[in-house]
From TrEMBL:
Chain segments annotated as transmembrane: none
Entry GO MF terms: mycothione reductase [NAD(P)H] activity
One Pfam family linked to the record: Pyr_redox_2
EC number: 1.8.1.15
Domain of life: Bacteria
Protein name: Mycothione reductase
Residues of the Pyridine nucleotide-disulphide oxidoreductase dimerisation domain: 341-450
Length: 457
């Protein structure tokens, strides 16, 4: 068996670890799929390229109230799809080629690996290897919904829906989280009739309750949204997919040409048989790590979706930097910082959030105050004629420290960054509001006004 100094499993964020500082290390990189991981190939990057195109396609719907007459004559799906993957596929191929040919100290194994003993890995290529150190960055995969008949009927996930040969006339989206709502926005904007099936009573239920309620209200005006609906059986009749639902209203059936399953993702730890090497798992299948991204086994680290409760690329990148440092500086390890993890939802409207929701603050018994500001009441909101978006801030009334922020509306994931900075560097709401200039009449005034409204002690 060949022995390495370091083995990295996964070429998403894990691929960024091995740089010129590892030139004298004997390294193996193991990848079961396409180089670049979820974000590059089937996640954040291609989806946002589709989202931007969808935003452009959706502009005629709101143009009339501004005195502009616009019409959408149609979209050229093959061109939209090929613009996206015409850029992404060469990047993935280039990353693979660079690792295969450009690093004399790196050996690449392409196969579904799994552990067969302590620090012993079957690479899935017919070769078994060992190493002093392992980094498990194997990501996650879509959950297959527990719906009778779904395997026989066939379904799409985020991993193949963006490469459809042609646009369907009707799409059923099973799920109510950010993946489901982003794809609902994309395909509805391209003229597809979208039915979104949610098991819960609200879309985006993990968001602040007011944000989720507003989003659900707006989405229900654009898509056929079925709330409190449990999918129990699916069948194909004369080429049409028929999804049978149980709801408080009784049995219902929704129909479509394709079924998109977007009900969550599962860590890939089980595919690797990590318990065979002594690595412990949480009850949900995530690898257990400490604040330094170390597993229960000395010399084995994990990062990203395979171990983190935050299935977010910026979290995986942060954790990769922590692991990289700790590999290079074993005598001076550092901790990951997960205090203020933000996220964005790139649907319509967009959402940006960081910190506690109001319901979380309430459940934890934390003393807090809130303030909200509508887009409609700032100058740039007038310009956009936005009547539905708002920002909501949550703060400690005694210290003025921000505990959470939640925005729904145009450019929300961009606007939230200002609050992330304030929370990360301990800037109080008062100092943030009064200690700097705010450009008038730009959109950040949404936050300025919300900050000034906070009823602090």
């Amino acid at each position: 068996m060949r022995h390495f100094d370091l083995v990295v499993i996964g070429t998403g964020s894990g691929n960024s670890i091995v740089d010129e500082r590892f030139a004298d290390w004997d390294v193996a990189i193991v990848e079961k799929g396409v180089f670049g991981g979820t974000c590059l190939n089937v996640g954040c990057i291609p989806t946002k390229m589709f989202v931007h195109t969808a935003d452009v396609a959706a502009t005629p719907a709101g143009a009339a109230r501004l005195g502009v007459d616009e019409e959408l004559h149609g979209v050229r799906w093959p061109e939209i799809r090929d613009r996206v993957f015409g850029r992404i596929d060469p990047i993935a191929a280039g990353g693979r080629r660079w690792r295969m040919e450009g690093n004399a100290n790196v050996t690449v194994y392409e196969g579904q690996a799994h552990f067969i003993g302590p620090k012993t890995l079957d690479t899935g290529t017919g070769e078994i290897i060992t190493a002093d150190r392992f980094v498990i960055a194997a990501g996650s995969r879509p959950v297959v919904p527990d719906v009778a008949g779904i395997e026989e009927v066939g379904f799409l996930t985020n991993e193949d829906v963006m490469r459809l040969d042609e646009l369907p006339a009707r799409m059923i989206v099973l799920g109510s989280g950010f993946v489901a709502t982003e794809f609902a926005h994309v395909f509805a904007s391209f003229g597809v009739e979208v039915t979104l099936v949610a098991r819960s009573g609200v879309l985006l239920r993990h968001e602040d309750e007011e944000i989720a309620a507003r989003f659900t209200e707006l989405a229900s005006k654009k898509w056929d949204v079925r709330l409190n609906a449990k999918a129990v059986r699916v069948e194909r009749v004369d080429g049409t997919i028929r999804l049978h639902l149980e709801t408080p209203r009784g049995a219902e059936v929704v129909e479509g040409d394709v079924l998109l399953a977007a009900v969550g993702r599962i860590p890939n730890a089980d595919l690797l048989d990590v318990e065979a090497t002594g690595v412990a798992l949480h009850s949900d299948g995530r690898i257990v790590v400490d604040e330094k991204q170390r597993t229960a086994v000395d010399g084995i680290w994990a990062l990203g979706d395979v171990s983190s409760e935050h299935q977010l690329k910026h979290v995986a990148n942060h954790e990769a930097r922590i692991v990289q440092h700790n590999l290079l500086h074993a005598d001076a390890p550092i901790d990951a910082d997960h205090r203020f993890v933000p996220h964005g939802v790139f649907s319509s409207p967009q959402i940006g959030a960081v910190g506690l929701t109001e319901q979380e603050a309430r459940e934890r018994g934390i003393r807090y105050v809130t303030a909200s500001q509508d887009y409609a009441d700032i100058a740039y909101g007038w310009a956009m004629e936005d009547t539905t978006g708002f920002a909501k801030l949550i703060a400690d009334p005694a210290t003025g420290q921000l505990l959470g922020a939640h925005i729904i509306g145009p450019q929300a994931p961009t606007l939230i960054q200002l609050v992330i900075q304030a929370m990360s560097f301990g800037i109080s709401a008062r100092a943030l509001a009064r200690g700097q200039y705010w450009i008038h009449p730009a959109m950040p005034e949404l936050l300025e006004n919300a900050l000034l409204k906070l009823p602090l002690d």
